[in-house]
Amino acid sequence: MTNPRQGLPDGVDLSVPSAARLYDYLLGGAHNFAVDREFGDKLVASHPYARPMAILNRLFLREAVRLMVHSGIRQFLDLGSGIPTRGNVHEVAHEIAPDVKVVYVDYEAVAVAHTRMLLGDNDNATMVHADAADVDRVLDSPECARLLDFSRPVGLLVVTLFHYIGPDKQPQQVMARYRDALAPGSHLAMTHLALDAATEDLVEMMRSTQDNIFPRSQDEIRDLFGDFLLRDPGLQPISAWLRARDVDAEDNPEAGRLLAGVARKA
């Protein structure tokens, strides 16, 4: 019988699902384990919009990156980047501008290991193993120092990240510190789970995983953008945002619990 731990980095807990591996499973990826698949199947049975939401979220990431590159952004900081799958940030960006620099950040060991394997000797992309809520560790990392110039505009990606950052970590202050580090002309792309009766049930389900979730009101999510100027179509349910950008996307009102927006620092 194959040893499921063979080739795994140290510290990976196979007894509890992780959000990164669950997302990979919902997207049809291969870097997940039985515990993640079992939980994913229960999640989809209770919340059928979970898989369409994951697919729409990936479409948003790609469209946001394209929008930023076409707006002149040539460097990205991708917080909570997750396990690599088709259409990663550097791949999408390099289709338009091969000189784009990308720094990925995640604390999940499988995500870090597979990203580093994917990148190999890529001089224009790298991986930071850190909790994105630890702002100093991220911004002061050798990887950021090598690839990113914070005196110039940066594309900051916080896609399905901040609803995993609980009140104890002061998410508004964390987001403010990242915004303050960015030069004028920088862009911020975000998706965040909105609070309603259905997501309250989702909160309870996620308590059995490594990653609790904290859905927020639309006003609370809007506040995470600070004084950045939201680009059209503003902060919208993710399927509505994509359709407004002429992206062919499933109209799934339930998946619209995930709000999406891209904003620019004046």
From TrEMBL:
Its EC number is 2.1.1.-. GO terms for biological process: methylation. The keyword Methyltransferase applies. Gene3D superfamilies: Vaccinia Virus protein VP39. Keywords: Methyltransferase, Transferase. It is an enzyme of class 2 (transferase). One of its GO terms (molecular function) is methyltransferase activity. Pfam families: Methyltransf_19. This is SAM-dependent methyltransferase. It comes from Saccharopolyspora rosea. The lineage of its organism: Bacteria, Bacillati, Actinomycetota, Actinomycetes, Pseudonocardiales.
